From TrEMBL:
Gene Ontology biological-process entries: mRNA catabolic process
Keywords recorded for this protein, A-Z: Endonuclease, Hydrolase, Nuclease, RNA-binding
Region (Disordered): 47-76
Keyword Nuclease: yes
GO molecular function: hydrolase activity; RNA binding; RNA endonuclease activity
SUPFAM superfamilies: Eukaryotic type KH-domain (KH-domain type I), HD-domain/PDEase-like
Family named by the database record: Belongs to the RNase Y family.
Function field: Endoribonuclease that initiates mRNA decay.
Gene Ontology cellular component terms for the protein in this record: plasma membrane
Organism: Sanguibacter antarcticus
Protein name in UniProt: Ribonuclease Y
HAMAP family in the cross-refs: RNase_Y (MF_00335)
The EC number(s) this enzyme carries: 3.1.-.-
Amino acid sequence: MTVQDLGILLALLGASLVALLLVQVARREAAAVREQATQDVAEVREDVKRREAESRQRLEEARETERDVADQRRRAEAATERAEALVLDTEKRQREASDEMRRLRAQMLSQLEATAGISREEAGARLVDELREQALQDASTRVRRIEATARQHADERARRIVATSVQRLAVATSSQIAVVVLALPSEDMRGRIIGKEGRNIRTFEAVTGVNVILDGDSRSVQLSSFDPERRELAEVTMRLLMDDGRIQPQRIEAAYADAVAGASSRTVAAGHDAAVEAGVQRLSPELIESMGRLRLRTSYAQNVLRHSVETALIAAAMAAEVGADVDVARRSAFLHDIGKGFTGAATGSHARLGALLAERSGESSAVVNAIAAHHGEVDAQSVEAVLLQAADATSAARPGARHDDLDRYVDRMEQLEALVAGHPGVRRVLAMASGHEVRVVVEPSEVADSELDELATAIAAHIEKDLAYPGEIAITVVRELRAVATAG
């Protein structure tokens, strides 16, 4: 045997040993797996048995529960039957008790009616009347208490609102006076106004119908007249003359004619200025012109245009305090006396005429109603209309705003002029010097020079008969005949 064969033999022996070892290991692993499988099968069998036992127990419990439920259902049905029987019995007893109660009540009512001497209906009516009377008394007492409390709070707030509105008002006084004072631009202007032998001042008074007062040491000239239109025309005429510097009779008449011609533009300008001051916008031209005419109107010595501006400012302040419509309150208050600008041809109260004019000019229904209702002639339909009434009264009640002396004076002057103007041939009448002088201008074609004394005497006798006046009244009758020719 060679070495090579020996090596092969050894290799085969080694391989056999390795194979044997592997077989032994595999057998041990197989035995372990078999043992583990046996244990697992045993555990599964035990679990199955346990689950079967639990299922049998649960099934038994379910059957027991079902038997209990059936017993409870039978007991509930029996209880329901007993309850229904009890309800029927109770209802029967209640019906019997109700019948007995009605019988006893009827018997008692019969006995009460017999004892009281009145029927059930009469007793019920008396009880209702007593309860109603008591309720009315309680309600009336409570209402009076609430009204008293509300009135107290309302009065306090109203006073606060009026006080606040008046405190915020900062305008010039609206009281009207019968004198206009103009400053003289120079010392020699006094002599020019008087003229040679007083002809200029006499011409000025005759043309304008106002009294001219010039004190010797004064630096102003005063124009006095009860008629505001005459005062305005005289003021404009005097300003034109002082600006021009040439003062003589012909120039006075020309300046007066210019003043008369510019009256319309002054009216429109006054209306625009008042609207701007009151804060009122978008007024129609007709309303502007009508408001401008109020500058020549007075009510208890209060200038109506100034009063309208005051009332608009007060009403706007009040509306802002109470949360009302400020624009409606301001607008209606500014226009509330616009009806006073109408001439005597229009009929109706100034509130009605003003409302019609405002409606015709496209003002809102709230403004129209406030104007018509500001003297209570119609019912106020808005808070702004009530505020207008309060603002109107507040402006009129301001200290010094109104007094009736000037109105009585103006009425007396107008009566005097109307009485004298009724004589035939009279063209123009001017009451001057507070009614102590009357200048009468007659038509030259109707009254001759020889009739002037007779006319003056007749006028004096008429005044003595029909008018009551203090002191004396001087009547001056003027007959002026002019002839104008042009040469060249």
